[in-house]
Model the fold of this input.
Amino acid sequence: MGRVFRPDLRHCGRALSDEKLEIGWGISMKKGVRVVVVLAAAAVAITSSQIASGASPAPANHRGSQSVRPTTGEIRTAVDGLLGWHVGIFGNVFPTLTFSESAVLTDALGLANIGGDNSQEVSPQISKKLDFHLSPEDVDFVKRQLDSLGLKMTAYRVDTIPSDEAWRQKLFAFAKELGAETIITSAMPSSLPELDSLAGKSGINVAIESQDDPKDLMSSIQGLSPHIGVSANLGQWMEHGIRPVDGLATIQDRLMAVRLRDRSRLGTNAHEVRLGTGTADLQRFLLQVAEREPPPQEQPNACVNCSRPYGGTKPLFIALDVNPWQIVVGTEPQPGVSGGSFADLWQAAIDFEKIARPAMGYRIEQDAALIPPTSADRIPAEVKQKIEAALPRKAAVTPRAPRKLLVVDLSPAGGYYHDTVANANFAIQKMAENTGAYQPIFSNDLNNLKYPNILKYDAVFLNSIVGEVFSDPAVLDGLIRFVRQGGGVAGLHGASYASMDIPEYGELIGAQSGPHRVETTTLKVDDPDSPLTTHFASSPLTAGLGGKAFSWTDEFYHFLPTGPYSREKLHVLISIDAQKTDLSQWHVRPDKDYGMAWIKSYGEGRVFNCALGHTPFLFETPALAQLVLNGIQFVLGDLPADTTPNAMTGNK
Done:
């Protein structure tokens, strides 16, 4: 999903007044710390504007009523469902703030997880430590605040775990009540076997902090159940001369939490640096963590028009962290690493999204191996007859050479799976048989998209792919390079909803994200002279509207104005006719421009995207089936067409 809020938030630091800042939950903050929370306050205002515009939130993000997290996807939250990685911060990373105040900032960072700490006070109104001595009313307050922000307190840290059995049980009950999966402690607990038993009964893991060589710690917990593990402090490891990958090799599958840091070199004579720029080799570290995960679990035939069941992940709390000795909290934004803890954490979240992609890609490729291309066998016989009757019998142009079209219909790791994927695969196969325009190869093996493997094909067809398809940089880089150097890519319906947390893919396909539902509207042919659309003029589909428009029922994407969709970049072929359609419920784009089919040049290559196809009628309608065939021949390089952006031709 595109990044709706991020550009706006970066420039809000100077918008502070000299008054107290109200940031929700009835919390007021003093001027001395207002720079830390200004982005959260700005995000509240931006979110209010988004809600008023009609942009609907993405359910997968689990945003609360007071949340300002983007409604569109971000890697920092996507890894939760894909890998079980709960990326967040410990609340006390803001040492002068309460847990409630830190939670607001956690949400403003675009994070969905927070780690509690027994050293931090609950809120300005409740000046009590966040521990099991809280009253039921106070605990309910914390739960309500977390719920209002859509946050999970997935980890809870204590200095020591009580040796008294009754107090231990209270600790575990408190952590469980707040939704924690893991209790983290800095001190080696006593009576480890009894603690292991309690962890198993309560369903809450215990992670013991490792700040130096983890070998002794591993010796202490050897023989205990998987409920007892390790919380790794990578900064401390590196200060003691331990490379993160070496420490991981020692603790193996016992890793339950990690404080993510990077340093300029091993040893004490070093300083903190941005994630991925030091000697921690964090990209390799995260990849090896992913490689130790249980294998993914898929049920490809479980359902259609749904997010299919996906499992096999192992919970891991990943805490973005900052060095408190490098933090200066002032009244004005400051450059560099001393620009304040919020600024450093903001940058850490951005850097995390870069270093996590190979690990995500590894997981996606594992998952893709479990998801075969969709068979046409489930399509009812009468529907197949309707499709075959509507399909073109000859190619728009004779192919210049034998063509191979790679067809991918992957929606991995719970990505929304469209029922009509089968219809499209059936139609693509039959059009190839009817016309001889190309040979389709159906495969969800993403290695086919890596360079130079992709050179085996003349173009790629992305059939309603949804989800984290392009997490692996090598996969997306291969596709982008292929198109730039003269290849082609076509997308159908859900293709713009793949990897919405990777802007480069959206720029390639031409759009990303937008509220949508099935409705009936009027579509107009924006370029009736394009070789892809000339047939509409004489089609029965457009006869009632002068050969230039038609009524259609489908799921229409209303692409956001903050995303890549723009007539400054695209040659739009078909769009919603704003003059003949009631758009009163869709205050998404001020220009009311919602393209549904377009072409574009991309380097030396070609892109075609058709956002229609949620309903089963696309390939049962001759004019639209012809449009898709023409689009395929365009991206294959056989059907030349003008790709000049509409804004440059006067057709805005």
